[in-house]
Amino acid sequence: MFFYLSKIFWFLATPSNLLACLALLGAVLAFTRWRRLGAGLATGAAAAILVLGLSPLASFAMLALEERFPPTPLDAPFAGAIVLGGAVEATDTFDRGQLVANEAAERIFALLALARHEPPMRIVYSGGPGLRRDETEAAAVARHLGALGIDPDRVLWEDRARNTRENAVFAREMVAPKPGERWLLVTSAWHMPRSIGVFRQAGFSVVPYPVDYRTGGAAEAAVPFRSVSDGLRRFDVATREWMGLLAYRLAGYTDALFPAPDPAMR
After folding, report:
1. Which stretches within the chain are classed as H helix?
2. For the chain, first and last CA: distance in Å?
3. Beta bridge partners of 186
4. How far apart are CA 262 and CA 189, in angstroms?
5. pLDDT for 147-188, tens place per residue?
6. Do 19 and 45 meet the contact criterion of CB atoms below 8 Å apart?
7. CB count, 10 Å around CB of 146?
8. Are strands 183-188 and 122-126 parallel, antiparallel or unpaired?
């Protein structure tokens, strides 16, 4: 139930969707007896779209998430790595007959690099079904991994998880980590705080290996966007993640509202 409610809520709460709906509502009201309200609503929504789409606010919201967990050097042995799904469009991959990646494709790049790492480590790719069909992301990646130079049998495929909490629970069930083992967690840098909090709450201690950075650092974050669509896209992603942190904490899925690095681990 949480999975479906979160999808419905997020569709309605996505800033770009919400502002577009408010602007449309305002335009409709402008032709009724509430025309002053409608004009104000449409103007305010349009102004918000321009501010959020062109100003660096989206980058600063994203930067705080991305800088929370620094990259982990691979200078020590690891028992394995958990690579979270979200990098591949499973339905499109099956429909087109080739791997269709999205903006988080760096997760796949990390999978390829870690599968070739010496000394070898266990690799788990966790990606279950989406909303539209029964094809799983894990199956989509497994089908095309050989073309990328990696034997699919080299990877353990977790194909049930539909969200981050299920990633943690099902991955822990699959690998049964032993005390003292060091496991890498691979996901987008902006998604790492929530992911770490979820894995900790699930009793699976992991070491962050962030990829898929959307900002170039503090200096780049202050630069305005060249197009409204780019700024709104980044603001949508950042807002979703901040709201996800709050929702997961309220649901008891994470160990903190904004999980921080473990000093002992560092």
Report:
1. 2-13, 15-29, 35-54, 57-66, 90-96, 106-115, 137-145, 164-175, 192-201, 218-221, 228-250
2. 37
3. 83, 209
4. 16
5. 999 999 999 999 999 999 999 999 999 999 999 899 999 999
6. yes
7. 12
8. unpaired
Indicate the pTM of the whole model: 0.91
What is the distance between the alpha carbons of residues 155 and 121, in angstroms, rounded to a whole number? 10
Identity of the residue numbered 204: F
- Report whether 85 contacts 137 (CB < 8 A): yes
**Tokens for 145?**
């991994």
Provide the 8-state DSSP code for 255. Answer: S
pLDDT tier at 221, thresholds 50, 70, 90: confident
Adjacency order of strands within the sheet including 155-158? 155-158, 122-126, 80-84, 183-188, 207-211
Distance CA 181, CA 77 (A): 9
CA distance 248 to 124: 23
Q: How many CB atoms lie within 10 A of CB 106?
A: 18
Give the DSSP per-residue string, 152-212.
GGGEEEE----SHHHHHHHHHHHH-PPTT--EEEEEEGGGHHHHHHHHHHTT---EEEEE-
Q: Which amino acid is at 198?
A: V
CA distance 140 to 114: 19
**Rounded distance between C-alpha atoms, residue 220 and residue 73, angstroms:** 24
On the CB side of 162, how many CA atoms lie within 13 Å of its CA? 14
By DSSP bridging, strand 80-84 and strand 122-126 are parallel
- Separation between Cα atoms, residue 145 and residue 36, nearest integer Å: 58
